[in-house]
Amino acid sequence: MYLSLVFLPLFGSLTCLGFGRYLGFRGAVLVTTMCTGSAFLMSLVAFYEVALCGSPVNVELAPWFVSELFDAYWGFMYDTLTAVMLVVVTSVSTLVHIYSSSYMDGDPHLPRFMSYLSLFTFFMLMLVTGDNFLQLFLGWEGVGLASFLLINFWYTRLGANKSAVKAMLMNRVGDFGLALGIMGVFLVFKTVDYTTVFALAPYFQDTSFIFLGFEVPLLTTICILLFIGSVGKSAQLGLHTWLPDAMEGPTPVSALIHAATMVTAGVFLVARCSPIFEYAPGALAVVTCVGAMTAFFAASTGLVQNDLKRVIAYSTCSQLGYMVFACGLSNYNVGVFHLANHAFFKALLFLGAGCVIHAVNNEQDMRKMGGLVQVLPFTYAMMTIGSLALVGFPFLTGFYSKDAILEVAYARYSMSAEFAYILGCASALCTSYYSFRLLVVTFLGPCNMHKSSMSGIHEAPLLMSLPLVLLAFGSIFVGYMCKDMFIGVGTQFWGTALYSLPSNTLLVESEYIPQDIKMIPLALTGLGAVLAYTLNYSNVASSYTFTTSYYGRMLYTFLNKRWLFDKVYNDVFGKNALSFGYNVSFKSVDKGVLEMLGPYGLVVMFKNLSGQFKSLQTGYVYHYAFVMLIGLTFMLALVGLWDVVSVYVDNRLYFIHLVTYLIIQATAGEA
Amino acid sequence: MDYLSLFENDFLVLMPEIFLVYAACFLLMYGVLVSGAPEHAYVTNTGFLVILSLGLALLLLINGPVTDMLLMYNTLKVDYFTFYVQAWILIIGIGVVLMSFDYLKREKMHMYEYMVLVLLSCTSMLFMVASYDLIAMYLAVEFQSLAFYVIAASQRDSEFSTEAGLKYFFLGAFSSGILLFGSSLVYGYTGTTNLSDLATLYTGFESLNVASGGLYVGLMFVSVGFLFKLAAAPFHMWSPDVYQGSPTTVTAFFALTPKLAVLALLTKILYVGFYDIMGPWQKVVMVCSLASMVVGAIGALGQTNIKRLLAYSSIGHVGYMLMGLASGSVEGIQAMFVYMVIYVAMTFTTFCIVLSVRTADNKPVEYIHDLSHMSRSNPILAMTLALTMFSMAGVPPLAGFCSKFYLFFTALSSSLYPLAVVGVLSSVVSSFYYLRLIKTLYFDHTNTVHSYVSLDTEKAWLCALSFGVTMFLIMYPNPLFLASHKVALALCALIR
Amino acid sequence: MNSSYINNMSLAFWAVSPVFLYNMVYSPNSPFLLYLILVPLVGALALFLIPSESIQLIKVVALNVSLFTYIASLFLWIGFDASSPNFQYLYQADWMPYGNLYFTLGIDGISLFFIILSTLLVPICIMLGWSSITIYIREYMVALLILDAMMIAVFSTLDLLLFYVCFEAVLIPMFVIIGVWGSRARRIRAAYQFFLYTFFGSVLMLLAILMMYFQAGTTDLQILLTTEFSTQRQILYFLAFFASFAAKVPMIPVHIWLPEAHVEAPTAGSVLLAGIMLKLGTYGFLRFSMPLFPEATLYFTPFIYTLSCIAVIYASLTTVRQVDLKKIIAYSSVAHMGVVMLGLFSLNAQGVEGSILLMLGHGLVSPGLFMCVGVLYDRYKTRLVKYYGGVVHTMPLFATIFLLFTMGNIGLPGTSNFVGEFLVLTGCYQTNTLIAALGATGMVLGGAYSLWLYNRVVYGFPKPHYINTYADINRREFFMFVPLIIGTLWMGIYPEVFLHDMHVSVANVIQHGSY
After folding, report:
1. Where are the domains of chain C?
2. ipTM of the complex
3. Where are the domains positioned within chain B?
4. Interface contact B224-A632, CB threshold 8 A
5. Chain C partners within 8 Å of B401 (Cβ)
6. Which end of chain A is more exposed for a tag (fewer CB within 10 A), N or C?
7. Cα distances (angstroms) measured from residue B378 to each of B439, B451, C194
């Protein structure tokens, strides 16, 4: 079961890809959904066995590649962390499969789409179940590939093409770090197997090694390298630019990949490597700061976006920041808890957004919507539940994890934690603002739609609504149900899957922070909601005045342009690399220097030379005789004056003679 | 004078040469008698008679009762070295005559003299190789040159041919003068012209520290005279003109035999007579070798005329052979002879093919681009030529590589690093123009139609044989290496 | 001769061959390697006996001979003993015993797979030329079969001089292939460059070989391995060998022949160049330079590291800006070979085994890519990226195959290149993290150009303006791709079978130099 759980989606995918033509649309949908659905059921069983009953499972399949000490095996490891991820992944995936069958209905490439979705699921499962870094890396890159394919699904759209490449490239930058991290792990531990590495981590606590020519603390470096991978995959600050662009893909894809599962792989990685991270305080600080900055950055950017999906995308980015800094504060369980919760409400939001977009004839700009509450009450309800869960409305799912994160951040009393707390609170404000702005502008505000789109508007069909309802239930109840199990004080749930040093455990501490402080996030959320309502609905004029003022415009542009990250990347890295590739390496070196010194230059030189030889060959007998005489004289001189000459025919000088000659020839050729 | 012993042994040993001289006289008479015949046939007949005599001479040579002796008052010497070289000269002579039939007929050169001249020059070269004395050497060289001057100009109705003959004559005379002057200087300073006497005289000469400028000058002059005959740079100027102007079969003859005979003689003189004053001549040979390789490589780059190209190519090859000479070791000689044999094989193939292709207006091909249609009209010949060119460039696994690698090996083992390095570099450069020929054959898809001429039987056999050597020598090169080793040993046995 | 007759003959031939092969492998002292070299040579000769009118027969015979060679080379693998540290299938014959030169053949775990790779690629190349070659068909087949033989010889020879001979002999057919069947007038230039670069490098190697021969009295590798050369000599020899191998690899300052040659060569030429020829250089380093000159190897490691890093970054950046499909793949080969060099000179098991795997993987992926380009070129007669777009609309099957190879090219886990690249970088990481990091940038940059290429060609809107005939790949083309696809995935998912056979041999190399 444990193996078929992983490989069923692959089977579904390949069947669909290979025989999609014979299966037809319905068949393709059925096969893939069945496969993923069964995987989900099995995951539930696995969750019961592994997580609830506390019996981790290891499956060693075969060697993958073994080279001296390097051993990568096809092995699967099921512990609590894996089990949680399995449930999250397969449940969301199944729902998305169902949703897509209706959402993508009528697309001629439906089988391909379903196949890609299943393929993605397979790689994601590989990622979470692998028992060594290499297999994780396989899943890691595999989901990247699937994401590339899915973003690119509508391949005639230039935007889709661009974002697909961008997504994969940005991810590969992260993978670059991850790969270096894995190599570092091998360098130190001589294995890439989790169990061994984690068991040995404490022994390398204070050692250092030479990296890039500098002596650096060992575990910290490795952890930071691994974290770079997370930064790429989880769209943390620096490598986040791909995530908003990835919204070019079909909406179910955004829900599955860019909200619920793939992007959380980075968090998963940090959580999985908790036994190493725990012994690398420097790395933890970095993780915390990056996470916090991401949370704030994304939230602030989300404030002013107008694309429905982009808002949610930035929200995702911001929430990922939360998860990451929770992990950075050694509260991996809180991070993973938020991950699981987030999967439900974010998938709900995206799928809801998908319904809206579907209804309004593929329009994504919020400004061109409005007043949809009258025609799409069900979707509105779903979106509201999702948004409330997201902003951490009390007793909804998001509340339990998000507040816990902020509380532990407060309770840590360290520089980075303080930093994280402040930014986290600020982001909570922003989150609430943009979530409600989205609701207000889309559903409540005045209608700005074309009549033609308005006339065709309709509530989502059953197959699309069903997943929404299920997810809504998840968004409401999962947090409450799982809180004690995931982050309850003294819970045995995690077993050995997550590890934090006793000195780093903060959950108890966080229970004892002042009540006022505990209320701050909630207050900020309320404030955000009010602001959103005021600025976008009741008092639009004030927001207009603000954005048209000088500083207001600057701020607006800055935020709207996403803090100008893309511009800087394009101008600084992209342009220069491209110009180097053409002007320097290709034009000046390959076709310039090397060509001149190589084929072209030599050909010219020899042409000149042979021309000179030819002109010596005059055809006059007396010239010939003269040359002979000169030759003879030369020979006599050579022998007679050998003592004088021998200095100049020293072996070592030949090279210099030759080069001198070449240069003379080359200049002569130019003249 | 003991006439008895003269008749008993010396003539016995000289039987091939004597036979050839007589044969020449007979053939001249035969020619005069039948030259009135209107057809070309009498030339062919003479040709076959020449082949017959050369073949008989070869038989005489092989079955000669004496393998090693000095004769004619120490002016000639016969041993395995001479045997080997003489045999090759005769074989080449036969080959050249075989090549010529078709060509002469097509070019309407109805001259039986041509055949007889080939015979005579072969005879002269047999003497050359055997000579063991500066006087004998000079006489043989002059004999050979005389025959060559005439044969170069043998196409009487062609201005080029006449010009070639004339040029060859003037410059040849010039070099003969140098040669003679050198010999007389040597004689003047030592009082002897015999090689073994010279060798005895020079034993330990360099360590004596005797001021002997004149002697060195004499040696220089002798060497330069020979280097001229070899067309080694910088004394090569005549060869492109002569090669181009002479009838193609004559060009082939020039490219083949004198290289062998003259180089053998030069080797003999330098190794036997002047081995103990190796310093000076080694420098000269080295410089000539370097210059020839470079000139051969670069000079040929710009050529469009096939015969000129081949002239430069042969200059280059002479450079390589001189490398073996310069190394001053047994292996050097051996490598040189290996190289020579392979060079002969490759040159035969090349000339056979060049001779058998004709342009659309039934003229012999003159320019490289005339060959461009060959790969269509005559694929097998084209492939043969292409592979031969690869071989000339020294690309393994063809025979050309075999010869070169051994030469480089000896050069390196005698610490002649500059020679080896320049050798490989110039072989890279020269591969450029060999490739150009291949390019013309295969890559240029021209539409010009060239007449297709099938090979005559003689050339076909010749071509097949020589190409076989080129192709398959690398598989079992042992016999060649052993034979040339024996030659080198025979020569070195003479060194005191 | 009608086709059914031809088919019957082929069938009969195939029916008998396994028995024949089995006997050959398992009869003691049978010179199996020699037979393996002779089979394509005899085939090439046989082609001359077939009248030039029966083109079909020529093709079929050539294909059957090459396939037979391939199957036979697999028997080589079957009979291979992975646990033995010695060279296997040893065969020695007189060549020039007078000069102490012998014709020595033998393989170990390193050369085994290169032989199989070459014999695999040749039938594919023959099929590539099945309909696209219209002139000099017999010559084409002969050239390929001779190449086949030469490549088997070059990978199985244990004699330096013989290695040199075969190493150079490969030039002749390749020169002809580029020059005769290339696509544009510039092909001549490309052929020249290819020939002269390689020739120039290798004559220097010849001098070094002769020096070694002069010193040791033999060129037998197994004896030379027991010879110690002084450090200065080693450095000199290493440089000379470097000149030859670096041009072949190609390392950075001498790489410019490669894009030219690739662009101008016919598809089969590119396939062989990328698949096998480039590996001759790296194989040479591994087989000769590293074990023979251990001190020089250590001495030059930083130098080679530097060059290879430059190669990776520089070539990748150059690739991004190319507009010719083939040039893109050619430059990417330069980058990949840079990674291979990094692996070799990390001088530890991971690095070396990784680079062998990467060579093999690259030997599958990059021919695959060239064949993809060839498929496009056969249809549309252009190789400029800008004319292509939206190919997936009309050629979905092709798009899938192309995707697979593209992913192979960027080293996606699960494809052959990943395993190689990762092992190489791991090996490198242990010697020098900076170099490993620089080498790993290839992962990112490689992704950049590969994805860009794939996107431009396959995705986007079709350009009916330029391209108005459509056909997905046909059956013959599909079956050409199949072995490469299987190989790529196999080596990505279960490369252990390959690694298992090379452990001992690689350990030998490393131990010998006591690195």
Report:
1. 3-513
2. 0.89
3. 277-496
4. yes
5. 165, 168
6. C
7. 16, 10, 27
